[in-house]
Amino acid sequence: MFKINRIKISGFRRLRSLELPMRPFMVLIGANGVGKTSLLDACTTLSASASGNLNGTLSKFGGIANILTRGKSEELSFIVEMEVPDHELLEYDLSLVPKGNGYAISREILSQKRDGYSESEPFKHIDSSEGRIRYYEQGKNGKKGLCTPDWEQNPIETALAQVPKMYRQPEELRRILATATQYHVLDVSPRAPVKLPQQMKPATLPGPDGEDLVPYLYYLRETDRNRFDVITDSLRAAFPDFEEISFPPVAAGMLAMTWKDRNFSKPMYMNELSEGTLRFLWLVSLLQSPNLSTVTMIDEPEVSLHPELLSLLADLMREASTRTQLIIATHSDRFIRFLKPEEVIVMDIDEDGCSTANWADQLDLDHWLGEYTLDELWQMGRMGGRS
């Protein structure tokens, strides 16, 4: 399985220089303002660099000058290592610097150790510096080696997002980075998409705003009944009076979704459900999707959820992490109770006001865990990440 095993982020808000080994299930904890959401946003920026949307994403964050570590960094950089089965690690190195009102890509290297290449000069799939782009040509017109592109390049998007198809390993890195997805708290306002009828169409994910939840669940029921049953079984475990969900048509090509409660003769429509119920339904549906991206990020999944649902949610996330690298940011003490130290990253602020991140299983907590739960140790300040 291809997976990201290390990431280094420098110059992104409080993340002045943060290096983190990656694991399948990663839950970020810490006080407000320690960099949890910044870490997710940095990963989203990195994803945009591989999908050709770097400029749009940086603009959404207010431009590179707005996200550089205040007074401490003049460059935004990322280093990513990807584990490749039966091959050496891939390393992607990207650096951006302010230029006028925008930015420039000052360095971009995609490299891999190979026989015949030294550690100081590894094999390079992409080698770009100050606008001079070269990529490894696989044999077109008899050429082999680093070549200059013969097409028009967009200078504010990365070569990774623009070069032709490469070997399988760098293609996997490009795909993994480009498809990484960040999910925020689900919108459950009165006219939110999740509360309205939705168009009947093939859908493999419920959508960041639940805009495809109805066709997704309908399609899953018809094509993957076992996975659909896992979702309904999870709902019954969370809500003992829940019986089933149904999909009545409401107009040509449009479906609604109803929730049957054993206490009532008539089912309820989505707009009648509580915020917590809607958000839990969306989370369970998302985590059960067979089409999750290789990296999935969820910010504050505990919002509106009753504390008794958090144990079930932790189990569902743990199972999903066998299919996606799952990165969660949370403020919930109760959620931490149901996690293991090897699943928790404690984020804090150093004496310079910049973010630090440490895996909880590296904090020597064993002698405390015999008497206290993980959330109690966090509340006591034994893990840091409190202020």
Describe what this molecule looks like in 3D:
With 387 residues, this protein is an alpha+beta fold. It folds into two domains: 3-12 and 33-180, no CATH class; 183-292 and 300-339, Rossmann fold (3-Layer(aba) Sandwich). Helices cover 27% and strands 28% of the residues. Strands 2-1-4-5-6-7-8-9 form an eight-stranded antiparallel β-sheet. It has a six-stranded mixed β-sheet with strand order 10-17-18-3-19-20. A three-stranded antiparallel β-sheet has the order 11-14-13, covered by helices on one side. Helix 1 (36-51) crosses helix 4 (168-179), helix 6 packs antiparallel against helix 7 (275-287) and helix 7 (275-287) runs parallel beside helix 8. The longest helix has 16 residues, at 36-51. The model has no long low-confidence stretch (mean pLDDT 92).
Question: Could you give a quick summary of the protein structure above?
Answer:
By secondary structure, the chain is α+β, with helices and mostly antiparallel strands.
